[in-house]
Design goal:
The structure holds 2 protein chains of 2 kinds.
Chain A: H1 5-17, E1 23-27, H2 34-38, E2 41-46, H3 57-67, E3 71-72, H4 83-91, E4 95-96, H5 101-108, H6 110-119, H7 135-145, E5 149-153, E6 163-165, H8 168-186, E7 191-195, E8 200-209, E9 215-227, E10 230-236, H9 243-259, E11 264-273, E12 279-285, H10 292-299, H11 303-311, E13 336-343, E14 355-356, E15 359-361, E16 368-372, E17 379-380, E18 387-395, H12 398-411, E19 413-415, H13 421-429, H14 431-435, H15 442-446
Parallel strand pairs in A: 1-2, 3-4
Antiparallel strand pairs in A: 5-6, 5-7, 8-9, 8-11, 9-10, 10-13, 11-12, 13-18, 14-17, 15-19, 16-18
Helix pairs in contact in A: 4-5, 7-8, 12-13
Chain B: E1 2-5, E2 10-15, E3 22-23, E4 28-34, E5 37-42, E6 47-52, E7 59-60, E8 65-69
Antiparallel strand pairs in B: 1-8, 2-4, 2-7, 3-6, 4-5, 6-8
The chains are: A alpha+beta, B mainly beta.
Chain lengths: 448, 70
Amino acid sequence: MANRGEIARRVIRTARRMGITTVAVYSEADEDLPYVREADHAALLGPAPPSQSYLDAAKILRAAQEAGAGAIHPGYGFLSERASFARQVIAAGLTWVGPSPEAIEQMGDKIRARNLMAAAGVPVSPGSTEPVLDEDTAVAEAKRIGYPVMVKAAGGGGGIGMSAASSEAELRAAFATARSRAERFFGHPDILIERYVARARHVEVQILGLADGRVIALGERDCSVQRRHQKIAEETPSPGVGPALRERMLAAAVRAGEAVGYRNAGTVECLVDADGGDFIFLEMNTRLQVEHPVTELVTGIDLVEQQFLIAAGQDVSFGPASLPASLPASRPARGHAIEMRVYAEDPVRFLPGPGRITEWAEPSGEGIRVDAGYVAGNIVTPFYDPLLAKLCTYGASRAEAVARAREAVAAFRIAGPKTNLAFHADLLASPEFAGGDYDTSLVARLRP
Amino acid sequence: MAEVRAEMVANVWKVVAAEGQPVGAGDTLVILESMKMEIPVLAEEAGTLSKLHVAEGDLVQEGDLIAVLG
């Protein structure tokens, strides 16, 4: 398990149920975390900074080989979307629990991915078809595309270095920022400029590329609750997507997967316009998504289990034979699920607030699932992302899921680090979220 | 004399200003990094950066002294 925190723990849980022996890797900062204890074996990688631990491919491969591992699950973030790492894993004779390095590469470059999707008949927004390498080209491209535009690292992800610009002056500043972040975080400077849609929902489709070559879609997730272009809460189904649009989006996501011969779990991210009439392709994430639990809650499918089965060349557990031969095969979902990301950050300005956890009491009960990376006594360090836990609720209806979420948020006790639980309480109490008619600017309105 | 302190546990990613340098209100002195976020530490008032207490790569705790403005 080439990852840490809640996702390492979550993957270990399914692996154990399947009878797979697990090996955790950890940095000096993480040795007390529960996932290290819960794995069958654990190997120390090195000092806390990611470059010397979870991003050090050679150390992770060495740990895998010394432990006699047969496969590597990359989780999300870190090395999960590095084609070169996937290649090294395969070359070392291990099974890579993810898509082919070629698919990662094709989708990892956002410009290539956009061009590929457009060719496959998936709608994309007006934008650059080649990497933008200097400021003057950026200005010319923005003029051609039309303001406002979004400026992002072509090789990036996680909202890092991304910003919107509505004038040439803003564009020049956004370009400089995106450029420096692109080099620092993603190792290459290519920039993508595309039309920015201010009032839109961020909706993504979960796909699975099966071992037999078919690609299926497992419904959508609405991820419009964001701060700094990063998700805070997600839900499925999306309140802004009707049956006709859903059918079109799932079909497009299947085509996107088929265009790259996709195997394993992936996510096709789209923007849906405010009135729910149309959508455009944003990018594809070639890995398990942070918010995958909401899909699991409404489908009853363990996505990590399917990842292992597909990687082993086996059928998925829910019987692909029962799926219609003609795709798209959207599997019927039941009920409604919401995920709230509990971050170690203050609930007003969303600034990091690491620290030692002196109290940790998770809510429990019907329709509540908590995927947590920490327990009381752990230290939340500044070295990694602020995700402490994912608090998920399920209900037969959206109203029931929201009501359970309110109770669960109120019952979650964390002391020590700062947390955004108070923000989630405000979000769930807001008429806009409760009504379901919201877009990506919701958080800015709740926290002006 | 004005003391500039860390608002949170963080790593010092970049030192932007140099000791002895005049700074204006709002100028960036150093850039901290915590939980994958860059946090610029700004001079609240104009003055001279008389002492810098951190170096790139340092880990600072909440309340630690980062710089003194004279």
